[in-house]
TrEMBL record:
Entries under InterPro entries matching the protein: Inosine/uridine_hydrolase_dom (IPR001910), IUN_hydrolase (IPR052775), Ribo_hydro-like (IPR036452)
Pfam families per record: IU_nuc_hydro (PF01156)
Superkingdom, taxonomy of origin: Bacteria
Keyword set, alphabetical order: Hydrolase
Protein name: Nucleoside hydrolase
Example GO molecular function: hydrolase activity, hydrolyzing N-glycosyl compounds
Domain Inosine/uridine-preferring nucleoside hydrolase span(s) in chain numbering: 6-272
Length: 290
């Protein structure tokens, strides 16, 4: 079993807000080889207060009582929070064993480091969803980066922590489109409680994305990073030297310069080997959750 902490900005089910963090929670709960040690909430898709309440309500609906849920910092102005304390404590209790998955702002991670300077070295690995290596275009519309840009100082410190880091960028996640086929599959098995819950909560997001970008479906950003944690073999890995400044990261930009061998070397997968296998893995995990 892989011990995992998940730091997220879950807004699944809230009007006009993304659904992918919630889909990750369901995926992790249904994954056979994941020991979910806790969920910490951050801001990004919405305020940390709204994210925390939404995630609490979701776990209550699912009758999940054995996974700690801890509220994080509300902004980069003061990073010390209950979530930062929890992350630092869990990493210290399990040195070299914890995978930290983060799919929102990285404020809680840097807060944990401010509390315990051994925090990053105590982790086994960090897997992130965020950042762009080139403009993020959806059906001709440019989309701003929404995770790393929230707290560029925190991102800079995480990237330069000498941790084992993998980043699933927005560009890579464009390969994980969730369209009519996937929605129809969920609806066709509406007798399954989790499938019905997912279909009911993601269909409004389909409508929102269609109005905004003119496509029927959405890009399942955060799920990509979660599947990397459980099934790294289905990704095309590529290690790059990242030289981003805090100014770069304020726009979520991962500046790569492979001539700078003394800079930070990070795994930035370039793609998913087989999208059908990817979706099969996701649906099977959801189905295991009753």
């Amino acid at each position: 079993m892989k011990k995992l902490l998940y730091d997220c900005d879950n807004t699944m089910g809230l009007p006009g807000r993304d659904v992918d963090d919630g889909l990750v929670i369901l995926y992790l709960l249904g994954s056979q080889d994941i020991d979910l040690k806790g969920i910490t909430t951050t801001y990004g898709n919405s305020s940390v207060d709204e994210v925390f309440e939404n995630t609490k309500n979701m776990l209550n609906f699912l009758d999940i009582t054995n996974v700690p849920l801890i509220k994080g910092a509300g902004s980069s102005q003061y990073r010390i929070s209950d979530a930062a304390k929890f992350l630092a404590k869990e990493a210290s209790k399990n040195p070299g064993e914890i995978t930290l998955l983060a799919t929102g702002s990285l404020t809680n991670l840097y807060g944990a480091y401010e509390l315990d300077n051994n925090f990053f070295s105590n982790l086994k690995e960090i897997v992130l969803m965020g950042g762009i290596t080139k403009p993020l275009i959806i059906n001709g519309v440019n989309l701003d980066e929404l995770n790393f840009s929230c707290d560029p100082t925190a991102v800079y410190e995480v990237l330069n922590s000498n941790s084992d880091i993998t980043i699933l960028t927005g560009n890579t996640c464009l390969q994980a489109f969730f369209g009519e086929k996937e929605l129809s599959k969920l609806k066709s098995q509406s007798d399954h409680r989790i499938y019905e819950f997912i279909a009911r909560n993601i269909e409004p997001w389909y409508n929102y994305v269609h109005k905004t970008f003119g496509v029927w479906g959405f890009y399942n950003w955060d799920i990509v990073s979660a599947v990397y944690v459980t099934n790294p073999e289905i990704f095309k890995n590529k290690h790059e030297y990242v030289v981003s400044s805090k100014i770069d990261l304020g726009k979520g930009y991962l500046k790569i310069d492979n001539s700078k061998l003394s800079s930070t070397k990070i795994n930035i997968p370039t793609g998913i080997r087989d999208r059908e296998d990817f979706n099969k893995i996701v649906f099977e995990a959801w189905r295991r959750l009753k």
